[in-house]
Amino acid sequence: NRPAIAVAGAGALAALLVLGWVIVSVGTGVLESTLALGFAVLFCWWVGRPLRAAYADPVPETVGPAVGACVLGLVLLDAAFAAVAGVWWGIAVAVFLVPAVGLSRVFDVT
């Protein structure tokens, strides 16, 4: 149903707001902040398209992939938060997206 999908979108927006607050409060460098924001943009792109499709037509064929995209998108969101601690931490976390996507093709994410 549409309200549940709207809540998922609101949760993603809330996570981005918290990321912005963390970046400002920690006072990271320019490179760390840029990488964190880059991962945040990738996260929005990764989950935005399937969430929009599921909101437009909330049937199992669109909601299932949206849930899977949100679960895999957590890796990008984690990478954004890790990038605040350091560039290499963010990259190290983002690398886990590769096996996660590979495993999602073998096993059902939801």
From TrEMBL:
Superkingdom in the source lineage: Archaea
TM ranges: 30-47, 59-81, 87-107
Swiss-Prot/TrEMBL keywords: Membrane, Transferase, Transmembrane, Transmembrane helix
Any one GO molecular-function label of the UniProt entry: transferase activity
Record flagged with keyword Transferase: yes
Protein name: UbiA prenyltransferase
Lineage: Archaea, Methanobacteriati, Methanobacteriota, Stenosarchaea group, Halobacteria
